[in-house]
Amino acid sequence: MSKFVAESWLILLLGLVFAVLLAGAQTSLQPTIRVNQQKALNEAVGTVVPGTVKTEILPVTGYDREVFRCLDGDGKLIGWAIDAAGMGFADKIRAVIGLSADAETITGLKVIENVETPGLGNKVAAEPRSESDKVWADQYQGLSAGMETTVVKRTPIKGKNEVQAVTGATISSKAVADLANKAIQRVRPELKKQDRPATAESR
Amino acid sequence: MAEENGSNLQQFVDGIIKNNPVLVQLLGMCPTLAVTNSVDNALVMGAAVIFVLVMSNMVTSLFRHLIQPHVRILVFTLTIATFVTIADLVLKAYVFEVSKKLGPFVPLIIVNCIIIARAEVVASRSGLLRSLADALGCGLGFTLALTLLGLVREVLGAGSITLPGWRILLCDPKVFEPHAWVIMIMPPGAFLTLGVVIGIITQIRMRSARGGA
Lengths: 203, 213
Description:
The complex is a heterodimer.
Chain A: H1 2-48, E1 54-57, E2 67-71, E3 77-87, E4 92-100, E5 106-113, E6 150-152, E7 162-164, H2 170-202
Chain B: H1 8-16, H2 29-34, H3 39-62, H4 72-94, H5 96-102, H6 113-121, H7 128-158, E1 160-163, E2 166-169, H8 173-176, H9 187-212
Antiparallel strand pairs in B: 1-2
Helix pairs in contact in B: 1-7, 3-4, 3-5, 3-6, 3-7, 4-5, 4-6, 6-7
């Protein structure tokens, strides 16, 4: 026992001190990190549902992430944004999926958190380098929300709800498609219910 | 790696030039190749490594007489992992955009062999001042090498120089884009640039060694 203590006291002590340091850093920085993440989330919502000025959270029972009602400047419903997450190749991938107001069409998808392999898997989160630049996630624009999207290795066939996998990163691509499919399947029935009274009013 | 008994200043300067961790010792190749596609990535990665190096060398030097030789690697790793986690949190809080681009490469500083090498070679057998001088020298050497690669790659591949916070366009993107060497900001560009830069540096070192003899 005394030999054990003699050889390890420094490690135990350092471990303790470091744990306190880490706890301190975590507690003091977490609020700022939260704000940054919230900002990134808002920006992502604006990308997947273009024209969003204001968002309201729509509570969906049994769905553990947020669903946003996207409104334009006049407060009219222009679409839905779903915060979704799923397991990727390395760790969790988080994405925001945009749906049209009638929940029939996918208006966009943006991966906001990932630690996929740089240069391969992380292309699913690629940001456009210029305004005309097309990125991987743009394939989602205009797909149907009513049926599952499938990941294919060839050029996608129009009308079959297909997205082409990132070359060399089929797992990451499938992970994104998977989390999007699951989230849409879970949330869409709720959105359809929400949609009816709103459109009835506007008419 | 023999350690001469030079001054602390000499130790600092050697870390940047004679013993440059990236361009001479060829250590820390993973971040060197992976995050040098833009200048801001290189600078932020360099700053994180300087912080971790300084803290790790400081702790190791302070406790060097107490660390049991057969568990020293454990102590080094514990120290490095702690400060890398802190650096990661700070980056996420204050340079969120860059930290998102660096992704897993910040946590991966834990396995950057420059840091453990400095702890083993210098800090575990030198006083505090010398260890700090060494950490700052090697950290700056690392940062300068990464920034140099980032500068070459970003200018040729994207026609811009990005600093944390703002981006300098060297010419109109519409004019530049058709002529951009996109490969330079992709992984092969890292190998090409690193190879050419190391070639030039080695040439200069051989010349000056011959001239000195």
